[in-house]
Specification:
Radius of gyration: 29 Å
Keywords: Repeat, TPR repeat, Transferase
Number of strands: 14
Number of helices: 28
Helix content: 40-55%
Organism: Limnobaculum allomyrinae
Shape: globular
Structural class: alpha/beta
Distance between the termini: 85 Å
Pathway: Protein modification; protein glycosylation
Protein name: Tetratricopeptide repeat protein
InterPro entries: OGT/SEC/SPY_C, TPR_rpt
Largest sheet: 8 strands, parallel
Length: 663
């Protein structure tokens, strides 16, 4: 066999046939024998390297492909070596390999596409776009390159070009599901909800379909869509096009389901980074006096997160706490960024760093605790926290629920209402409970002068129910209760936050179905926080949504002096308003069932004296209750951080819930 090229080639063809049938272990055995007899058999060396790549034995794959290149370089050898290096998280070496492939074959479209992927991870969008275009020029029907180009064009606000690229991807590969998903997401963003729903369903992406249906108030068949969504997520391990935050609205979702689906999502979506070792941490500093805290977010600007947190950042005791912000926020200038700039607090811009570089940057800062303010919300970069750039990672504020995957967070900050100790099993994180409420509030938040009702298109003498939540939080069941209230409080209107024309028209049609004149729904435009708080004073009673309740929306109503009726549920997200009401001294406005919710709202609307008493109680409590005491909240938060670090320092891996007592 050693001296007979014909026999060698026959054995190679046999191995190649096994490889093509996916019988990699059998192919490996033959290739090993071949190389033992003919150590410079380039094709056998290369194929064995590819087999090891497919078997996940990447170090061996690198070794054999490199041997093949030393004997006879080829574009395919360099390309496959680049794929191996990507699996080994060696992007610089992968880039060199792909560039070498293109040098040997300038029309190597797959190498160009992979170079685009590398530049995308580095946030070099212009270079990524260049390489995707190069791949398409080399292979005009290369659907994957069109999909990748569409994604980057979307993310760089070139929407029309993005649509055209994605349509090309679908034309050349009708089975490339991600192209449909990205395009459907663009339809949803642009208010083309029915097109989005239809396209999401086409690829069995029911979770995104229900989200688009809720955003557009397309409620026909929503119950069945919710059931299909839960069935598909609990039975599947494919989570390419899924966002856990949008699942919170699905009826029937339990906290344990939400935790477990979040874990499966994280392990699928972050598979590569979760398999990598954590970034090396700087030598730990003692925390006897100064505890080093970092906050990680994309929302350090005029955003709900900063509406809540600005006062906390201003009141942190910087003598005893080192505070640093790690931002991947868009470049903005507004009143909130100005408040940040006025602080003696460094803001580290991670927006143009890769996830690995961002994690290394954080790790070099000797933090004790990194607080992730995003979780599974939009624009998150959980790859950073997955690399563990601090010894303790805390999830707080942005995401009302468990992340499921223990590597993403060690603790979650809650309170006795949103995360009671008896709910500990609902979370992969250890509970760390604030004494009153997990949600901070800014006591410097200004309220503009109250406008007239005429200026807000409200009837002068009507009873005004309001709910300024996003429309996707509405459900047919809750909306029916609201319509029932309108029916039984004749001189009343429902004041809602406006959206695009489609969901507004659908809500008006839904009102008609419930026997209500659609003109009794009054839609308000978006305003600045200050102006919004001013107009909120015109409302008589705020109505919460369910199962996802009001968060910042609820604290806004209470700060403006408007009582809120809520229904308590099993999810973190359905307990937030109850926590706020408890902390502001109005637990009597928390109900347990739809009927209780309806009856309480009805009785308050029909009892002006009782409602006035509640408003007076709220006005008195606003300046004395824990909910709006930013100074007290900040001191409690700092005590909680110290308790978390103390428990971590003990070294016991079985952490118990931390329940901070009031002082």
């Amino acid at each position: 066999m050693k001296s007979n090229p014909q026999i060698l080639n026959q054995k190679y063809q046999e191995a190649l046939g096994l490889y093509n049938k996916g019988e990699y272990l059998k192919a490996e055995g033959i290739l090993r024998q071949l190389i033992q007899r003919a150590p410079r058999f380039v094709d056998a060396l290369h194929l064995l390297g590819v087999v090891y790549y497919l078997l996940g034995r990447h170090s061996e794959a690198e070794s054999f492909i490199r041997k093949a290149i030393l004997i006879k370089p080829s574009s395919e050898c360099h390309f496959n070596l680049g794929l191996v290096y990507r699996e080994l998280n060696k992007d610089a070496e992968a880039e060199t390999a792909f560039l070498n492939a293109i040098k040997l074959d300038p029309r190597h479209a797959k190498a160009a596409n992979n170079l685009g992927n590398i530049e995308l991870t580095r946030k070099n969008f212009a270079k990524a776009e260049h390489y995707y275009n190069l791949a398409i020029t080399s292979s005009p029907k290369y659907a994957l390159a069109y999909k990748n180009l569409g994604l980057i064009l979307r993310d760089t606000n070139q929407e029309e070009k993005a649509r055209q690229a994605l349509l090309k991807a679908i034309e050349f590969d009708p089975n490339l599901a991600e192209s449909y998903s990205i395009l459907a997401g663009m339809y949803e963003k642009d208010g083309e909800f029915q097109s989005a729903i239809d396209m999401f369903k086409k690829i069995d992406n029911y979770c995104s379909a229900q989200r688009a249906a809720r955003r557009g108030a397309f409620w026909d068949g929503l119950d069945e869509l919710d059931k299909t969504t839960l069935q598909s997520l609990t039975s599947s391990n494919e989570f390419n096009f899924f966002e856990p935050w949008s699942l919170l609205n699905v009826s029937g979702l339990t906290p344990v389901q939400h935790r477990d689906i979040g874990k499966k999502f994280a392990q699928f979506k972050l598979k590569g980074v979760l398999q990598r070792p954590p970034v090396p941490l700087a030598p730990s500093l003692p925390a006897d006096s100064v505890l080093r805290i970092g906050y990680l977010s994309s929302d350090f600007y005029n955003h709900a997160t900063m509406h809540l947190m600005s006062g906390i950042l201003e009141k942190h005791n910087t003598d005893n706490f080192f505070i640093r912000l790690y931002s991947y926020s868009p470049q903005r200038k507004d009143a909130y960024t100005e408040r940040l700039n006025a602080l003696n607090m460094e803001v580290v811009d991670l927006s143009n760093m890769s996830d690995s570089a961002a994690a290394k940057t954080i790790a070099q800062d000797n933090l004790h605790i990194l607080v992730d303010l995003k979780g599974f919300t939009q624009n998150t970069r959980l790859e950073i926290t997955a690399l563990r750039p601090a010894p303790v990672i805390v999830s707080w504020l942005g995401y009302p629920g468990s992340l499921g995957e223990p590597r993403l967070a060690d603790y979650i900050i809650g309170d006795p209402v949103v995360t009671p100790v008896e709910h500990a099993e609902h979370f992969s994180e250890t509970l760390a409970l604030m004494p009153y409420c997990y949600q901070p509030n800014d006591d410097r938040k200004k309220i503009a002068p109250r406008p007239t009702r005429a200026e807000q298109n409200l009837p002068e003498d009507a009873f005004v129910f309001c709910s300024f939540n996003q429309i996707m939080k509405y459900t047919p069941e809750t909306f029916a209760l609201w319509c029932k209230l309108l029916h039984n409080v004749p001189n009343s209107v429902l004041w809602l936050l406006t959206s695009t024309s489609v969901p507004v028209d659908n809500l008006r049609a839904e009102a008609v179905k419930n026997g209500i004149d659609p003109q009794r729904l009054i839609f308000a435009d978006s305003l600045s926080v200050e102006q919004h708080l001013g107009r909120l004073q015109l409302a008589d009673l705020a109505l919460d949504t369910y199962p996802v309740g009001s968060h910042t929306t609820a604290s806004d109503a209470l700060w403006a002096g408007v009582p809120l009726v809520t229904r308590l549920g099993p999810l973190f997200a359905s307990r937030v308003a109850a926590s706020l009401l408890t902390a502001v001294g109005l637990p009597e406005l928390v109900t347990a069932t739809d009927e209780d919710y309806y009856q309480l709202a009805l009785s308050l609307a029909n009892d002006p004296a009782r409602l006035q008493q509640l408003k007076e109680k709220l006005a008195a409590n606003r300046t004395t209750s824990p909910l709006f005491d930013t100074e007290r909240f900040t001191r409690d938060l700092e005590r909680l951080y110290r308790a978390i670090w103390q428990q971590h320092s003990i070294g016991n891996t079985e952490h118990h819930p931390i329940v901070l007592q009031s002082e």
